[in-house]
Amino acid sequence: MVRKPIIGGNWKMNRGTPEDSKEMLESLIPLVLEINSVDIVIVVPFTVLTTVSKLLNGTNIKLGAQNMYFEDKGAYTGEVSPRFLKAIGVEYVILGHSERRDIFNESDSLINKKLKKALSLDLKPIVCIGEHLEEREAGKTKDIITYQINETFKALTKEEMIKTVIAYEPIWAIGTGKTATPEQAEEIHIFIREYINQKFDRDTADSIRIQYGGSVKPTNAEDLFKKKNIDGGLVGGASLETNSFYQIINAAALTIK
Ligand code: PGA
């Protein structure tokens, strides 16, 4: 089973004026033009989606949003409809990032509603799951992952599950410079895949893409992506500069399995 690796660059709230977005993308676009073996997604703040959508038009880089609401329209001040995202060329959406869960109290059931909505509109979801440091230290990583899969992916069909990208992001590794070792990451990726096999079937488990996220850098990307069950990465800090992000994309292209 060949799964196409996917590299997401999540700018969070760190980059995203029209000027600094343009500056970075104009240097990145020509560098990655020939890389077709990897799905490359740039995930930018809402305010710059339209600008970036135009910049990416006709390139092989896809556009992603960092969040969305689960309703199409209505009195939801401050929220963003998935239909608005679709209308400006957004293809991917990150759901349930640990920062949304921890800082903005997003629950698994809310993420599940968003996920079903995104799938119903053909937006491609990147759903984040992962444990806190205390949970890992208490030996609860697999329980947390199991719970998150059960709740976040509740009532999804096999077809919907296959369209979803999972990002395994151990929270203790996000923005901390502490990467999970390739072995630690692979162990959980195998666990996730096997659990999906149990809940769905072999075909679903073998088809679904599972990215790793948490301090992915040019220096560790290749070792992580070489692992059989790691299908690319969701990158925060190292996606903010052209050179480091390009090296990570290249690492994914070099380690196609
Ligand atoms: P990081 O962020 O690469 O800066 O650790 C990853 C993420 O939050 O997706």
What report would you give on this structure?
There is one protein chain. It is built from twelve helices and eight strands. The chain is α/β, with parallel strands linked by helices. It has a single domain, classed as Aldolase class I (TIM Barrel, Alpha-Beta Barrel), CATH 3.20.20.70. The chain has an eight-stranded parallel beta barrel, surrounded by six helices. It is globular, with a radius of gyration of 17 Å. The model has no long low-confidence stretch (mean pLDDT 97). Bound molecules: 2-phosphoglycolic acid.
Topology of helices and strands:
Blueprint: E1 6-10, H1 18-32, E2 39-44, H2 49-56, E3 61-65, H3 82-87, E4 92-95, H4 98-103, H5 108-120, E5 124-129, H6 133-137, H7 141-152, H8 158-163, E6 165-168, H9 182-199, H10 202-207, E7 209-213, H11 218-225, E8 232-235, H12 242-254
Parallel strand pairs: 1-2, 1-8, 2-3, 3-4, 4-5, 5-6, 6-7, 7-8
